[in-house]
Amino acid sequence: xxxxAALAQAALDAVRDASLVCRTVQRTMDAVRAITKDDSxxxxxxxxxxxxxxxxxxxxxxxxxxxxxxxxxxxxLRNPEHATLLAGTVEAAREVWPEADDDWLLEAVxxxxxxxxxxxxxxxxxxxxxxxxxxxxxxxxxxAYIEHGQVIIGVLGCPNLARDFSVEFxxxxxxxxxxxxxxxxxxxxxxCTHSGSERPVKIERLPHASPxxxxxxxxxxxxxxxxxxxxxxxxxxxxxEPSRLDGQGKYAVVARGQVDAHVRxxxxxxxxxxxxxxxxxxxIAAEAGCSVSDARGEPLxxxxxxxxxxxxxxxxxxxxxxxxxxxxxxxxxxx
Length: 335
Ligand code: AMP
Ligand code: MG
Description:
The structure is a single chain. With 335 residues, this protein is α+β, with helices and mostly antiparallel strands. The protein folds into two domains: 4-203, Fructose-1,6-Bisphosphatase, Chain A, domain 1 (2-Layer Sandwich); 215-331, D-Maltodextrin-Binding Protein, domain 2 (3-Layer(aba) Sandwich). The protein contains eleven helices and twelve strands. The strands form two sheets. It has a seven-stranded mixed β-sheet, with helices on both faces. A five-stranded mixed β-sheet has the order 9-8-10-12-11, with helices on both faces. Strand 3 and strand 4 form a beta hairpin. The radius of gyration is 19 Å and the shape is globular. Bound molecules: adenosine monophosphate (AMP) and magnesium ion. Magnesium ion (MG) binds at residues 125, 128, 277.
């Protein structure tokens, strides 16, 4: 059996370093845009640098072959027309990987071109919530280890998410938050900027107690059927506008008890969710004491390659509320 504690420590360090790189690129976004004359170049640079840093760290720290299913490949960066972006990516990665050069960086990005391996593999979304990153709002660095279809380790770097609940989601935090867990061992929180000496805080989702019910959803209205979600949530007692944030920070804010539920329903055209968009968040919410399922109440099934082929939608909430949400979805014939 794999040494899960060693895997989790390497994953935590990898996500912490990648999160630091993303924060720096975001801080210097205007300068990056000015040099590259391209509005989306900061996210491109941060995406590739984040994937390279995570892959490089996991390879250096863990024995054996690295099976990593990452969202990015190096083809775009290898195109000579994108040399400026490659140079920017190498420079960004050097903040935490000082020896990085063009060839090593490209090779590290390509370590993410692995296939799901039933006996154990990693999945990475180097920046989940691209649009949130570009707006300077929420996004996350998402890494999970999956064995025989079960998520075993989850790490979420949320570089702009304040640990203080009174800070608005669209306010950029100076320290950010990082969440990690090993199945069966609970969830832990640290600032993204931690140096390794701070004591992690255990996160637990208390049963829902307040008279009002809140929920969160994607900022991008094409990623969820907002009107249907609103009718379901009103049926279980929610009122008012949901919080909206990009990336898997949605799982974290429910796990830590700030928001009561996260619901995602597909719009009419069926959409197969990608494993890297849900694996770490789903384990983190479940380990904090939430119920996590698809819209029919079925467990998320990570044993079908890159997609959650057997699932439709997502429901995350404390157990009693979760049951009521799934019931309200079924009653409305939404799945
Ligand atoms: P979110 O930040 O929760 O809106 O999710 C971002 C992720 O949604 C991206 O990483 C995409 O992989 C994924 N995505 C893209 N298109 C869709 C879609 N039509 N429905 C649901 N998710 C999508
Ligand atoms: Mg994503």
